[in-house]
TrEMBL record:
The lineage of its organism: Bacteria, Bacillati, Bacillota, Clostridia, Halanaerobiales. This is 3-dehydroquinate dehydratase. The gene is aroQ. Homododecamer. It comes from Halobacteroides halobius (strain ATCC 35273 / DSM 5150 / MD-1). One of its GO terms (molecular function) is 3-dehydroquinate dehydratase activity. Substrate binds at N73, H79, D86, L100, S101, R110. Pfam families: DHquinase_II. The active site is at Y21 (proton acceptor), H99 (proton donor). The keyword Lyase applies. Its EC number is 4.2.1.10. It comes from the Bacteria. Catalyzes a trans-dehydration via an enolate intermediate.
Length: 143
């Protein structure tokens, strides 16, 4: 099973800054991921939270579940959440950090990811395809 974690404000996709994040909704992204997973006989667990503590709890719970890889878009927590970073560092499965926009072409405060040093890889700047590329790679890593 692959765990997909959507962080803060991603529930507003389609409405929030469509010039940056596109017009696809979170439901659209999740449907795309489910179709790709189903075609590869992979089970997904998909969650979204605006709460740092809840995201940490979800990461901790993955230790007790049959999670083989994690895809996470930490949203704004990318840039300052040492707590999420530390929770991910405790996990021994492939972890892929995902961003719809290219965080390195945006405001300077977005250029630093405290998450990146503890994940397997980072995919950013490809819109919805950032997620599908991450899922394709996660599948490769667990096979």
């Amino acid at each position: 099973m692959i765990l997909v974690i959507h962080g803060p404000n991603l529930n507003l996709l389609g409405m929030r800054e469509p010039d940056v994040y596109g017009v696809k909704t979170l439901d659209d992204i999740n449907q795309c991921l489910r179709e790709l997973a189903s075609g590869n006989n992979i089970e997904l667990k998909i969650v979204q939270s605006n709460s740092e503590g809840k995201i940490i709890d979800i990461i901790h719970q993955s230790l007790e579940q049959n999670i083989e890889a994690i895809i996470i878009n930490p949203g704004a927590f990318t840039h300052y959440s040492i707590a999420i970073r530390d929770a991910l560092a405790a996990i021994e499965v492939p972890i892929l950090e995902v961003h719809l926009s290219n965080i390195y072409k945006r405001e300077e405060f977005r250029h630093k990811s405290v998450i990146a040093p503890v994940v397997t890889g980072q995919i950013s700047g490809f819109g919805v395809d950032s997620y599908t590329l991450a899922l394709e790679q996660a599948i490769r890593l667990i096979e």
